[in-house]
Amino acid sequence: MTPPTQQLSCAPFVWPDREAAFYAEHLAASNYVERVGGRLLELLGPQQQLLDIGAGSGILGRHLLAPGGQWTVVEPNAFMRGSIQRLAAQTPRVGLSLHDGLWQELGALALAPAATVLCANIPVDDGQAQAFLQQVRPLATQTLIWNLPAQEGPRTYCLSGFLPPQLHRSDMTPGYQLTLAELADRWQPDQIHFTDWAFSTLFASPEAALMHFMEKLGALDGAAQGLLERHLQDHLQKVPGGWLASAPKRAASLIWQS
């Protein structure tokens, strides 16, 4: 999965490894695969042939693979590609073909079409949705899945939805609505399915949580820092092993059938 802050109309963005590692660790500890992956398996069944574009750490794509399936992956972040290789090594009889690249570079990769193409949380903004779909749809001989954020909340970094609007200061429009508005009628998906989940992070202490959010938010004046500290006091949950921050999410799975 490519980063929630990525804007693809400008220079392509590739995650720094430190941010990729944080996202991969805590996504794996969240209920994303259980909820979103489980729903896709109910809808489509295990996949024998999967082209996974912007695969992130690979946990969703691997969840959808049938035993002995062929998994072709495009992922620009080196840390994430390492995670994908480890997942494939732990999965019996999976055939992995791993490529370094962004969606804008798909033509140069000369990928063979696959029965199913998965695009997980690639936030193609600023007028690029149609161009993206024109690149990826011909690669799916049967099914194209494009997962996008559908919560009425921020779409910036992974825990921004844990914060109040006065702190995250982000647009709250569900991301999939922005994408659909850019697509011509003949490019609209055949189906849209919604799944609720939550991105959760366990911090060692309230102080560790405060440092994390201050780093993400950047320079705060005294009033904003006070608001952040009060919000953490009121909303961090004490659980075994630390302090939990959880951001509600909703996935829109846009599906095209050939």
3D architecture notes:
Helices cover 37% and strands 28% of the residues. By secondary structure, the chain is α/β, with parallel strands linked by helices. The chain has a domain at 17-155 and 169-199 and 250-257: Vaccinia Virus protein VP39 (Rossmann fold, 3-Layer(aba) Sandwich). Strands 1, 2, 3, 4, 5, 6, 7 and 8 form an eight-stranded mixed sheet that branches. Helix 9 (206-217) crosses helix 10 (222-235). The longest helix has 14 residues, at 222-235. The two termini are 24 Å apart. Residues 1-11 have low confidence and may be disordered.
Order of helices and strands: HHEHEHEHEHEHHEHHEE
Radius of gyration: 18 Å
The helical percent reads 25-40%
Our estimate of the beta-strand percent is 25-35%
Q: What's the overall average pLDDT, rounded?
A: 91
Stated plainly, the CATH topology of the domain at 17-155 and 169-199 and 250-257 is called Rossmann fold
Q: Count of helices? A: 10
**Which residues sit in consecutive blocks of at least 5 with pLDDT less than 50?**
1-11
> How is the biggest beta sheet arranged?
8 strands, mixed
* Relevant CATH superfamily of the domain at 17-155 and 169-199 and 250-257: Vaccinia Virus protein VP39
Secondary structure elements and pairings:
Blueprint: H1 17-29, H2 32-44, E1 47-53, H3 59-64, E2 65-74, H4 78-90, E3 95-99, H5 106-109, E4 114-120, H6 129-136, E5 140-149, H7 165-168, H8 175-182, E6 191-203, H9 206-217, H10 222-235, E7 237-239, E8 242-257
Parallel strand pairs: 1-2, 1-4, 2-3, 4-5
Antiparallel strand pairs: 5-8, 6-8, 7-8
Helix pairs in contact: 9-10
